[in-house]
Amino acid sequence: MDDFLAARLQMTVSFVFHIVFACIGMTMPWLMFVAELKWIKTGEKVFLDLARAWARGVAIFFAVGAVSGTVLSFELGLLWPKFMEHAGAIIGMPFSWEGTAFFLEAIALGIFLYGRNRVSRRIHLYSGLVVGIAGVVSGIFVIAANAWMNSPSGFDWVNGQAINIDPVKAMFNKAWFQQALHMTIAAFASTSFAVAGIHAFLRLRDRRNIFHEKAVNIAISFGTVAALLQPFSGDISAKNVARLQPVKLAAMESLFKTSKPASLVIGGIPDVEEQKADYAIHIPKLLSFLAHGDFNAEVEGLDKTSKGNWPPVVIVHFAFQIMVLMGMLMMGAGMLFLIFKFKWKENLDKRWWLRLLVWFTPVGFIAVEAGWIVTEVGRQPWIIYNIMKTKDAVTPMPGVQYPLYLITVIYILLTIAVFGLMRRQIKAIDTNPNYLKDHD
């Protein structure tokens, strides 16, 4: 394995794990906060215990997310020193603000975990709200830095050097808003469906346990709202990518030739040599509308870019199709939940519905992983779009494959530890007789 491939694989492994921890860290505090709010409003102890249980989960994922995020920050400097040499002064601001949000989140989480009997009920509730806000803001700052790699701004590139640096303009680049919006909604959708699925599974095991019934209702409510908002965010993202990174959009859609109008491609297997998508469904003019808001607009294809600067078309196309499919599945489940919620509530506790939610447990995270493949792989061969190529930023240090093996083992151990800790929390809930009721 050459060092360049090893460096890219190491970042891939880190992202694959960290993005899941990050999504959970952004979303779980809001579930915790709503459970606490419901306890204050209703006085039902099950909501208090639910808030406590989810708070322990937040603490676990906060710690794990901090570890995996720290690893990523070291990897940027160690594996991609040429990138950090130029980019550090430009995108340092969002990372510093992310650190501020992280510490604020840590303080507020400490109050929520240990201050229940030491501060007023209102302050305790607000501390949970601060955890949720800080978690989302922290994620947005990191996404802003990544968006800069897709839409570099805030500097002048002269003779291979960045001059006239404006870190504010760099942070609020042309891609930051749509990426932050899309990723934040994706975090809520993926985590909420996963939480709903886990509690649905436990509800099926013990039909008398009302703890899991309440948990499913809160989690799937969040997931439904996020899933139904995501298509609007996706539309904003598609138009932004068409404007800023047309070659990425062409790879996503396997659009090899510039077309006016352009058809939307559903499914299919890209044939790069023949420059076509086999077995695909083509919907005339729809890509033109989705990309530019005009059914007759021209959409730039891969033919406008030299083949050496194409991203891996097959990988990007399949990842995009998977992301869209998973998103549509969650949207369908969300619409079904709303119908049941307002029309046939009895279905919300049927076994078939709970089983369906169990199957949906990984769907959101599959969509998130596929979306990040589209974002990162679709930018290749550039680490800074149209400025610096990835191969020019890699470390000259030999033996990069050995840290890859070490990092992979660390992440696997972290994941095992998380599963063990969460399993212990769930076992404590399942053996608590306070949640049991007769079920007909």
Give short descriptive properties of this protein:
440 residues; mainly alpha; two-stranded antiparallel ribbon; globular
Please state roughly what percent of the residues sit in beta strands, choosing from under 5%, 5-15%, 15-25%, 25-35%, 35-45% or over 45%.
5-15%
What is the number of beta strands?
6
Arithmetic mean of pLDDT: 87
Low-confidence stretches: 436-440
Descriptive report:
This protein has 440 residues and is mainly α. The chain has helices at residues 3-42, 45-79, 81-114, 121-150, 167-171, 176-205, 210-244, 246-252, 286-292, 313-342, 351-359, 363-377, 390-393, 401-430, and strands spanning 156-158, 161-163, 264-271, 276-283, 382-384, 388-389. The strands form 3 sheets. Strands 1-2 form a two-stranded antiparallel ribbon. A two-stranded antiparallel sheet has the order 3-4. The protein starts with a helix and ends in a 10-residue tail after the last helix. Mean pLDDT is 87; it is low at 436-440.
